[in-house]
Specification:
The chain is α/β, with parallel strands linked by helices and 284 residues long. The chain contains nine helices and 13 strands. The strands form three sheets. A five-stranded mixed sheet has the order 3-2-1-4-9.
Length: 284
């Protein structure tokens, strides 16, 4: 069995539609998967979870601002699951059948060896509840490819991990920058294959605003995550993926990405990227 877990925003306003669309797509495309949600700060998730017949954890450890801590979320997920694979996924992401198909393909290739898998998303405006009874996958994929936009390599809205994670996860603050990029770095540093599945997986991100960025503590939590990761030099993206999943199987990244992949852990190269990021930050 595979377990999906997520930390939703409160089911209010547009996020009620967005998150219901996402979760219902998980139920439809992964009917045998275990789905675990974690209660939001307004405590709206448990009622939705009960309505949809899925599990909700209400006692995750949080920081002083009420934001869940990722290490405890993972710990509680593992305690509730006997799955060999766990998947963190954001609750604005619509899944299609290609997602589970890609995971099964990688599991067959890796034969029990650890890996970290993620992929880019299609950004799309979705304002209505999806009808899951009328060729919904074909319609949403066609719309995403024609009207949507493929996100940059930094957009990693799902992380596929082995349940026996071979490293200790810091107490990252959920939903703040740093978690996904550190996981890529840590996997690469331990020679665990990082797989970019974008070429064969269609996932759709439902566009929305980001009200949490307006909260006074957002920058505080963001800074903490960067510090927990060991600094910007330890924050990678899919640009540093070591393998790419295609219809043929796992392949090395093509030029020029193969250069970024090969140089990912080379200190002088990482230092140059650090300078570039700092300049970009100062420019705004």
């Amino acid at each position: 069995m595979i377990t999906l877990f997520s930390t939703p925003r409160p089911f209010r306003g547009p996020f009620d539609i967005i998150q219901r669309n996402a979760i219902k797509s998980w139920i439809n495309t992964c009917p045998d998967c275990n789905i675990i949600l974690f209660e939001d700060e307004e405590r709206t998730t448990s009622a939705v979870a009960q309505e949809l017949g899925i599990e909700c954890v209400t006692d995750a450890n949080c920081d002083e601002f009420g934001t869940p801590l990722f290490d405890d979320v993972v710990k509680k997920t593992l305690k509730l699951s006997n799955s060999k694979i766990i998947i963190q996924i954001n609750t604005d992401i619509i899944l299609t059948d290609s997602f589970l198909g890609a995971i099964n393909k990688v599991l067959d290739i890796m034969k029990g060896k650890p890996f970290f898998m993620s992929g880019r998303r299609w950004d799309l405006d979705v304002v209505d509840q999806l009808d899951f009874n009328d060729n919904w996958q074909e319609k949403i994929i066609e719309k995403a490819h024609s009207e949507g936009k493929l996100h940059a390599l930094s957009g990693m809205d799902y992380w596929v991990l082995p349940a026996n994670i071979p490293f200790i996860i810091p107490s990252f603050i959920v939903g703040r920058p740093g978690m996904d990029s550190w996981l890529v770095y840590k996997s690469r540093s331990l020679k665990i294959p990082v797989i970019d599945s974008t070429a064969v997986v269609d996932i759709i991100h439902q566009n929305h605003n980001y009200p949490q960025k307006k909260k006074y503590f957002f920058e505080i939590e963001k800074k903490r995550n960067v510090e927990l990761s060991g600094g910007i030099m330890n924050m990678f993206t899919l640009r540093e993926a070591s393998l790419v999943l295609t219809e043929k199987g796992l392949e090395n990244p093509k030029f020029p990405r193969i250069i970024f992949s090969k140089l990912a852990l080379f200190y002088p190269w990482r230092f140059l990227l650090l300078i570039k990021r700092k300049i970009r930050y100062l420019i705004g």
